[in-house]
Prior knowledge:
Elements: H1 2-9, H2 11-32, E1 44-48, E2 51-54, H3 55-73, H4 79-106, H5 112-119, H6 126-131, H7 141-149, H8 156-185, H9 190-201, E3 203-212, H10 225-234, E4 240-241, E5 244-253, H11 258-269, H12 272-277, H13 281-288, E6 296-299, H14 305-308, E7 319-325, E8 328-352, H15 359-377, H16 382-389, E9 400-405, H17 411-419, E10 424-425, E11 430-432, E12 435-458, H18 463-479, H19 483-495, E13 500-507, H20 521-530, E14 540-542, E15 545-555, E16 558-559, H21 562-587, H22 593-600, E17 605-612, E18 618-619, E19 623-624, H23 626-634, E20 644-645, E21 649-659, H24 668-679, H25 682-694, E22 697-698
Antiparallel strand pairs: 1-2, 1-22, 3-17, 3-21, 4-16, 5-13, 5-15, 6-12, 7-8, 8-9, 8-12, 10-12, 11-12, 14-15, 18-19, 20-21
Amino acid sequence: MGVFNKINQRSGLVVGFIAIGLLLFLLGNEFFGPNSILFRNQNNVGEINGTSIDGVEYQNTVANQEAEYQIQSGKGVTESERQYIQQQAWNKLIYKYVYVDEFKDLGLTITEDEKFDMVQGNFIHSYIKSAFGGDQQGFNKSAVTNFLQNFDQVDQTTQMKWRLIEFQLDEVRLKEKFANLLKKSEYVTKAEAKKLYHAQSDKANVDFVFVPFSSIVDSTVEVSDGDIKEYISKHEEEYKVEAGRSLVYAVFDVTPTYKDSVVIKKEIEKLIVDFKQTDNDTTFIENNSNAAALPAYQTASQLPPSLSDRLNALQKDSVYGPYADGANFSLYKIIKVESDTNYSVRASHILLRAEAQTPEAKAAAKQKAQDVLNQIKGGANFADMAKQYGSDGTSTRGGDLGWFSKGQMVGAFEKACFASSTAGLLPNLVETEFGYHIIKITQPKTNKKFLIGTVVSTIEPSEETTDSIYTKADNFAATVKDTAAFNAEVLKLSVKGKVQKYDQKNVAPNDPGLSALQNARELIRWAYNDAELGQVSQVFTIDNKFVVAILTGERDKGTASVDDVREDVKRKVLMEKKGKTISEKLKGLSGSFADIAKNYGAQAQTGTASDVTMASGIVGSIGYDPLATGAVFGLKQGTASQPIVGENGVSLVKPVLVTLAPEATDYKTYSTQALSSRTNRVDYQSDEAMKFFADIEDERYRRY
Length: 704
């Protein structure tokens, strides 16, 4: 009976559990399914104008943009280009959910007649001109007509490009109509035009006293965090910030070792015999080179140094190399040797310049050059003399200019070099506008040209090297636990040249990369989605490097914190306090400006500015100071102002003579000028306003 009594006592609780279970069963999909109330927002990447943007829609838009890019460019999308395309896709969605509705409300449309006119009519759009011949002079309307008449015979890629142009044309024209609608709504009144006329034409001669902020040493002015907070609170709109994450990150470069280089060299050496014997050089290069390029003719001046240095020894069907060329080893095959119409020559020179453009200085330079030439004729080493006396960049390499063809050097120099048919020192100085040249022909002129085939092997880190560097990065990530340890360990490794440290403040959530890393989305997502302040990341592979980061700062969207803007605000508060100190001291002085400056001290400057205009905003040596300029034209002639705290210091101004421009009979020029200034800002300002009022929430960083 005891058991039944307990059940009876708790029957209400049991019924409650059953009721909850039934409710969850009935509403489970509504609350817990993939499209449930609780989870349906997890797939969203943001909100535009009150519309939630689903990840699927965003991905489809990105895919469409990538397809358009590939059609237009004819190539695949790189990672850095993908970041740009993703932003384009987001802009497309902004257009769809912000602009399209606005255009409908305004009644903006494009008629079929208008479309025809943009493509084949009297007002061809620039998009079409660009696709068919460029600017107005190069454009041929009949080319468009012929293209459209034979559209079915055009290849599919070209058809797709045309469809894209048609699709884009509608969007561009609607935006143009919208912008023109706004521009046509701009209006400048006669009073505004008259005001601009006088701002540019009224002139004043001004006496002034100026005390620069720099007259007070920064260290003597105390700026507290409280001062900074107060300034920010008074200027909140100036210090609105977006979300940001600050990172310190260590970059472990994955570079090939000497051992890797030796292995690559041995591999390319194995190709020499087959490369020499092959009859199909193009196919061989395509199959064996990391940088496939068709064989091409090169003159002596175009050859790589490894070949030009041995020009006379180059023989047909011979293979030379491998030569180290930066990050590659290269094999060169001489496929053909022919004669060219152009000649090349190789020379060295020693340039002696005149210290001044006077007859005496030129004579001295010429005499010095002749003395050096005589020493070389007497047996002195040319390269040593070039290093000692040469005055241009070739002196460090013994005067060597390498190979050059006609048209690359100044006239007199070129004539002397190509006039010689043998190698050796030219007996006479050559004068050019640069000075006096001592010339040595190191290889005489030749008109040989060579058909060169090149096989390139990139020197890349081996798997062993890559694994070794990854292990170092992984050990680093596991060892350091806080910012101090992170910085200390990076310092040790950087001394050994194994790692570089970077510090980046306030990375935005959708930034594509960091200062030293072009494609760092994965790391940025970690900083926003997974990391806690002070947390060290796992090892990321970015741009063929290994990266370990630590999150050093978090900034939320809203008003900036003291730490975010400390230096900027501190400078402004410093100027405010200096301005107040200087102003109070100036207020306590009287007399002429000369007396005030004398009594203030050596830091005060006096001066006169002529032809000051309101539009310029400049008052003599005070510099740009619109407050001081405004005071000049707001005071009665001969009346001194109170202290004015300006851009660079504190000033007292007194208009000595104000000349008002006579009234004009027509202010149209100024009306046009003012209207142009306004309409030039319409495109940017309207775009910013549309985005602002659409209340866009971009949360792509959570997933992409």
